[in-house]
Amino acid sequence: MIGTAKGLFLARSEDDRRTWEISGPEFPMTGVYAVAVDKRGDQPRLFAGMTSSHYGPGLASSDDGGRSWAEPDHAPIAFPADTEASLRRVWAIAPGPADQPGRIYAGVEPSALFQSDDGGTTFELVRGLWDHPHRPNWGEGFGGQAIHTVLPHPTDGAAMLVAMSAGGVYRTGDRGATWSADNTGIKAYFLPDPWPEYGQCVHKVARDPENVDRLYAQNHHGVYRSDDGGHIWKSIADGLPSDFGFGIVAHPYRGDVIYNFPVTADGMRFPAEDQCRVFRSTDAGNTWEALTTGLPAGPYYGVVLRDAMCADDSRTAGIYFGTRTGDVFASRDEGESWTRVATSLPDVLCVRAASL
Amino acid sequence: MITILVPSALRSDVDGAARLEMPAGGSLAAILAEMDRQWPRLGRRIRDEQGQLRKFVNIYVDGEDVRRVEGLATPVPDGAEVQILPSIAGGAVG
Q: Is residue B35 a part of any domain in this protein?
């Protein structure tokens, strides 16, 4: 699934990810900022969150692999009247843990978390986070003020982590009733106090598949790791050509393996050193290597946004990324080599991949 | 009765209809409330969940931009034509 600034494109491979057939766009002229594949049910359900600059946000699902899409008559995600807030955009769609098959979370703009217990047909605002005393002070990044990362704990149904721009990392251990800001060690260089309790602009957080208390964060300048479930963070940016970027991706089942696409700087949003390179660490961020085989060799100017890199769930993991210049690349060997899936698409906002 | 003219981008929300007939209901707010009831997907494309007209959706009652008249309180008399049009200002994605 390839969400772009002008609709959703689908790429299908029938030959173990060697070649791809592109279809779309679905939802033309909408920005598709969030897509998800939920494989917990009898058949995979795809989700797409789209925003029309005229007609507002929407959330659609497909139960036939993206061949047809449906939106419920009612607005699936809507702020209650007493909040006086209106949904502007769905930024994240996250299936819950395996033992909660109907549970779907949605992170949205303005910063709020919604949850569904009927597979994504109706959602309810998570009041514990909406009523958080920090909320009036949460800031707004260039992309708006949104919860863009939702990480349910894989084994503890009461625990989860969200991240927002700006505001940082928040965690709950009591099913969303109460939340704590957990940004110790993450720098907010753009604030007078660069080490605040909250207010950081965390761009994306990924969870290690083997050590579930190990987390990785790409910050608005700064790449970090936490080894205690997200409480204390330390830098793992040494070895990267830049500590700026948007996305960070964990390998789907190998611990300590992560992927990153460095961007030069906040004020210079081009790939680091103008090169199209993915950086991989196989030791939880202590060292990094550039992966370039098959990627464009010359100067390259398309950056990878926060949700525009992902891994699939195949036995030999595939890694995918799309750029703001409309290219999509895939690796069927965990990043060792790459092929071009699509070119000249609209700005790629998000990608997700799964074997169906 | 009044007539609602549906822009092409929203016709999939009303089974492809370009025109909808509705009972005259007094104000535009009442017409939109009835629209929410009969065609909820169309309704939410036009107003957000707090009932506010979306910024880049324009509604004309018999050719008058309702934002220049009485907004949602604009009267919609029997026989009126309510036209929904996307604003040219809303094409943010280029």
A: yes
Q: What is the CATH number of the domain that holds B72?
A: 3.10.20.30
Asked if residues A112 and A85 have their Cβ atoms less than 8 Å apart, the reply is yes
A:B CB pairs within 8 Å: 53
pLDDT in tens, A296-332: 999 999 999 999 999 999 999 999 999 999 999 999 9
Q: Is A315 on the interface with B (CB under 8 A)?
A: no
Whether A356 maps to a domain, the answer reads: no
Q: Nearest Cβ partner of A79 from B44, B49, B91?
A: B49
Give me the residue from A56, A79, A87 closest to B45, CB to CB.
Answer: A56
Domain contains B82: yes
The domain tally of chain B equals 1
DSSP string, B50-62: TSPBPTTEEEEET
Structural domain contains residue A285:
yes
This prediction's pTM:
0.96
Instruction: Single out the residue of A146, A149, A159 nearest to residue A112, CA to CA.
Output: A146
Beta B81-86 vs B2-5: how paired, if at all?
Answer: parallel
B92: distance to nearest CA of chain A, Å? 6
User: What pLDDT is attached to residue B16?
Assistant: 96
The total of structural domains in chain A comes to 1
Task: Check CB contact of A53 with chain B, cutoff 8 Å.
Answer: yes
